[in-house]
Structure formats: structure tokens, C-alpha cells
Model the fold of this input.
Amino acid sequence: MIFGIPVSIFTMDTIVKHYVEKHFPMGKKKWFFGKKVLIHKYYNTGAAFDFLADSPRVIRGIHTGIFAIVLIFYTILSCHKGNEALKISAGMMLGGGASNLFDRLAKGHVVDYISFGTPFKRFNKIVFNISDFFIFLGAFLFFFQAYKGGQK
Done:
């Protein structure tokens, strides 16, 4: 199980990205669940919210550095018994980070493809991918577990 979570997330997101790349030309959109979920291709050269989109080398460096830290942390955790919640959360961040970093290094951008139809127009403009969800969920679980552990 040690590397099952990150490998599964990486594989799943890579398969979906490949499908979107092949079947969704730029500009093609498909709504699901009564215009609640939108699938469309978007190339993100920056970080979240296109932060530093004009500085791809900086973003690659930051992304690589954060990925290395998470990988080291995950590897250390994996060598010890216990801390299953931390291992799972770090595995989620590692798998999602690996998929997005692979895109960034191989293609020069991250392939995003999911948006949501909400009453909040600014939120509707944000485009995610599966890896992003696992990175956010993993970070949330990690900090929740760390906070909970500090409460003992």
C-alpha cells in the first residue's frame, strides 16, 4: 500500500488528461449534472489561479521543490509503523503533485479540465483536474491530523 495511493492518483489523472487532450479540442465544452460540472481543456502555465503564469521556470522550480519535500516526507513516513492518516494524506499530495509536475516538465503546462457551475462567477472560472482535488484533500487531511495530534 505504501506507493499504491500516489501511483493510483497519478495513473487515474494521467488517463483522464490523455482522454481530454484527445477528445476535447480547445473551446469544446460539455456540461454534466444539469450544468453543475463542466469538462473542457485548459492549459495552466502558472500555479493556482494562474499565479506566476508568465514565469514558467519559477513555477517549475517551486513545484519541483515542493514535490521533493513531500516525497522525502512520504518516504520517511513509509519507513515507520503507524501514522496511517499522515501516510494517506501525504500519498494524496504526492500522487497529485507527481501528475501535475509530469505535465509541467513534459508539456510546459498542466492540463486542467473540470470547472463548476455555481452562483459565484469568480469560482466558475477556476479549472481543476483530479490531481488538484487530491492535493487539496491531502493537505486538508494532513493539517487536520497534525492539529488533532497537537490536541492530545
